[in-house]
Write a structure and sequence with these properties.
This protein is mostly helical. The protein has two domains: about 170 residues, no CATH class; about 100 residues, no CATH class. It is built from ten helices and no strands. The longest helix has about 40 residues. The protein is globular and about 55 Å long. The N and C termini lie far apart (about 55 Å).
């Protein structure tokens, strides 16, 4: 009898941990980040914003963890769900998630002298944490699917928060938000192909996207710091943005079977033969 109960008990325990992850952790993140912005930062909402910086920061932080939890299956947590969820590397990534939540909240804040340095500092510290969490995971031998998923989600969130505050504060032109949209366009194309029963091909085996992401992180950190002239950021924006958008375009063509060009021809030929 006990042997029959134990698998059920483990499944129920895993399910409860997933439920906590999908509801409890996002709510906790929202409370911590929202209260930190409301209580510690002298941020007043911009005249055009119906939401306070604290509310936006809380929603943004909670959303990141909710996305990760939604894609985490109970079986993935294993026999030590707490250790799996709250490893040292994941904690560092969670800190980065909170910092990006603060950056997003500042997008709807009035750009006063009191908060002028905060977006750049918070985003810059988040970038440092981005380089740190992977190193920590490899050092302690705790590289996990959850950690990789969390890292990717927070990376994507950072490329939404930083351009958003830069555009809202007039530090970059509005079209720089295309960087924020590019990842979601890629995911949308991939989802649509799967929904239509079409093949999804692999992306090119290249580190170019990672290098360009690093360039974007450095550029956005610099632009958000008051020490960098706004005019310089505007002049450099198209030069920095174009390669990143080109790589996203290449990846979209690749998963659709049109890059390299020979792959598209082979796919078309196979379709004709069928």
């Amino acid at each position: 009898m006990s042997d029959r109960v134990r698998p059920w008990a483990r499944a129920a325990s895993s399910s409860s941990h997933v439920a906590v992850g999908r509801v409890g952790l996002p709510l906790l993140a929202a409370a911590v980040v929202g209260l930190a912005v409301a209580g510690l930062l002298p941020a007043e909402p911009a005249a055009w914003s119906p939401l306070s910086p604290a509310a936006v920061a809380a929603i943004f932080a909670a959303g990141q963890l909710w996305v990760v939890a939604r894609n985490t299956a109970p079986a993935e947590l294993g026999d030590e769900p707490v250790g799996y969820l709250f490893g040292l590397a994941n904690t560092v990534t969670g800190l980065r998630s909170g910092l990006y939540g603060v950056v997003a909240g500042l997008a709807v804040a009035a750009p006063t002298a009191a908060v002028a340095w905060l977006p750049g500092v918070c985003y810059g510290v988040g970038v440092v944490c981005d380089k740190l969490d992977g190193t920590v995971a490899r050092t302690v031998g705790r590289e996990t699917d959850l950690g990789e998923r969390l890292d990717m989600t927070v990376d994507t969130a950072g490329f939404v928060a930083a351009p958003l505050v830069a555009v809202c504060w007039g530090l970059l032109p509005w079209w720089y938000l295309s960087l924020s949209a590019a990842r979601y366009v890629f995911l949308g194309v991939r989802w649509l192909r799967r929904a239509r029963g079409l093949p999804v091909f692999d992306r090119p085996d290249s580190d170019l996207g990672k290098y360009l992401a690093g360039v974007q992180m450095g550029f956005l950190t610099a632009v958000l710091l008051p020490a960098v002239p706004t005019a310089l950021g505007w002049r450099l924006a198209p030069v920095v943005l174009a390669p990143s958008l080109a790589v996203f375009g290449r990846d979209i063509l690749a998963i659709s079977g049109f890059y390299p060009p020979s792959r598209g021809a082979d796919a078309a030929s196979s379709s004709d033969e069928a």
